[in-house]
Amino acid sequence: MVSAVSGQLNNYVDYLVKGEDGKAHRFDHTTITVNLEGLKDSPQMYDSALAALNAWEVTTGLRFNVVTNAGADIVFNNDGQGSAYASTSYNGSGYTTSAEVNVSKDWMNGFPASERWGDGSYGQQTFIHEIGHALGLNHGGPYDGSGTYSKNAIFDIDTHQYSVMSYFSQSEYRASGASDINLSSPMIADVMAIQELYGNLSVNAGNTVYGKGAAAALRHTDLGQLSDSAYTIMDTGGLDTLDFSNAMARCVVDLRPGSFSDVNGNKGNVTIAQGTVIEIACGSAYRDTIVGNGAGNTLYGGGNSDKLTGSGGADRLLGQYGHDVLVGGYGKDTLSGGGGNDRLAGNGGTDRLTGGAGSDVFVFAHGGGRDTVTDFQDGTDRIQIKSPSIEYSDIDISDSGGSAIVAFDNIKIVLDGINASQLTASDFIL
C-alpha cells in the first residue's frame, strides 16, 4: 500500500481518471444530456437521481439537461437484477459517446427505507457513484463489484473521505480519524479528477452560502437539517459563507483549501476543495474551533467558548458569547471578544483588539508591530507579554494623544482612553 506521503492525492486522482489501463475517457462537452424516463415508475428513485446530478453540478461545474429522447448522453434505468452499475461506450478518439446508469429497484429495496432516498442516504450516494463512472471516473483501485481495503486498496487514502468512487469506508484509513457516514456529494479527489478530465469550470461563483440558509441546490450542506452526511465544497468566486450556527454539536472548522472539518459530532465530514476560498464562517452554540485561510476572513464564534484563528489577510474575529480565544494572523486584524472572559492575541500586523464585557487578557509577543486595545479596563483586564526574560522594568509606559503607550522589544501597544499613571505591574502577566 502506498504511504500517505505528499503527492499521494495527485496519484490517486490520476488513477481515478485513467484506471488500470492508463486511458482516460470523457464526454467532449461539459453540458451533458440525461434521460430519466426509465426511473419514472419510481418517483423516489427519479428524485434521488436528480439530486445526485445536482450534487455533481454544484461540486464540479458540469451541467446536466434532462431530456426525453433516447439519444441522451446518459440514460438512467432501474430494471437490472440485484445490482447497480454504469456502462459506457467510446469512439475511436476515446471520447464517451453514451452511458447508462442502472440502479435496480430490487437492489435498492434491499436497504432500509431511510437508506434508500434523500440527501445523506446510501441510495443517493450510489447514484452519485454510478454517475461518476458515466462521466469517466474509475474506482480508486483494481476492484469491481467486491473488494476489501486490506487486499485491494493501493492508496492509503482510497476511502469515502476522498472519493465517492471508493468502495471503502472512511475509517479504513485510520490515520484520518474520519467518521463512517454516507456522502451527499462527490469528494475532493473526484472534484480534482473531473477538473483533469473537463477543465476548471466555474461553480458557485457568486456570493454563496453553505450550511444554514443555503439555496435549495446546496441544501445538502445544511448539516443542521441533515446531521449525518459528508460533502465537499467547490467554489470559484464571490464572497462566501460557511454557516454552522444551527449545528447540533461542536464544530472544528478549517477553511484552508484541501482541509477537512468536523461538523455535528462527526469527524472529517466537510471538505474544502483545492482552490476554494471561503471568506466567512459561523460557529455553533457549542465550543467550536475555527481556522481561517489566506484571505481576509470574518469568523464568528457564536454561543459558548470558542477558539478562532486567523491566517493571512485582514481578518475579523468575533468571539460573541462565552470565554473565547481569538488569535490573529499576519494581516491587519480586528479582534472582538464580546461577552465573557476572553484571550485576544493579534500576532503579526497592526491589529485592533476589543475585549468587550468580562475580564479579558490581551496577549502580545516579541517581534514588532503596533496594536491598539480599544477598551482596556484597568483593574479588570490584563496584558500578557510573551517575551524571553522580560521584566516589568523593561517595559516603557508613556502617554500620547489621550492613550497610554506600552512599548517593549519593537512592539507598541496603544491603550485607548488609559493614562500611563493608571498602569502598574499588576496589570501585566509576564
TrEMBL record:
Gene Ontology CC: extracellular matrix; extracellular space
Required cofactor names: Ca(2+)
Gene3D superfamilies registered for this protein in UniProt: Collagenase (Catalytic Domain), Serralysin-like metalloprotease, C-terminal
Keywords recorded for this protein, A-Z: Hydrolase, Metal-binding, Protease, Repeat, Secreted, Zinc
Residues in Peptidase metallopeptidase domain copies: 23-175
Subcellular location: Secreted
PANTHER family, A to Z: S-LAYER PROTEIN
Name recorded for this polypeptide: M10 family metallopeptidase C-terminal domain-containing protein
